[in-house]
Amino acid sequence: MRIDQTHRNWFLVSVVVLAAAAVAYIPYSERSPAGATGGSVMGLVYGSVGSAFMLFAGLLGARKTVRTWRLGRATNWMRGHLWLGALSFPLILFHGGFHFGGALTRTLMWLFVAVYASGFFGTALQHFMPRFTTERLPMETIYEQIGRVR
């Protein structure tokens, strides 16, 4: 899926949500005597919203698997997967106060970083590869159609 004008609303809402979360995080982290923690009310809100965004991003696979589910358009699901997935990481960082915690939390956060980075890599591939492929391989054809094309 190319990132084009159809993503404008998703992008703007994502920027507004991230800015609001960051603006709310600053006074919260400064007022907390022990700093921002995941167990505080604000930390739980950040964690819940970030987890909900991750859950929605993960449900795209279920939506693709069970095609009989008529739960919205696939393009909207893909856009939600992209933009809500991108928002989930900063919200989870706000949840934990930018600390990776103990061994299990540190391991899970590094796995999350890897998944997040692979998502950006995959998005870049989906955005640039179709154009690159059509420019570099203009005569590419399906194997079964070689005889007809020749």
Straight-line N-to-C gap: 31 Å
- SS-derived structural category: mainly alpha
**Number of helical elements:** 5
Order of helices and strands: HHHHH
Instruction: Tally the structural domains.
Output: 1
Quickly list its features:
single chain; 150 residues; mainly alpha; 73% helix
Could you give a short description of this structure?
The protein is an all-alpha fold and 150 residues long. The chain has helices at 8-31, 41-65, 74-95, 103-136, 146-149.
Task: Summarize the helices and strands and which ones pair or pack.
Layout: H1 8-31, H2 41-65, H3 74-95, H4 103-136, H5 146-149
Task: Summarize the structure in words.
Helix 3 runs antiparallel to helix 4 (103-136). The protein has one domain. The protein has helices at 8-31, 41-65, 74-95, 103-136, 146-149. It is elongated, with a radius of gyration of 20 Å. Helix content is 73%, strand content 0%. The protein has 5 helices and no strands. By secondary structure, it is mainly alpha-helical.
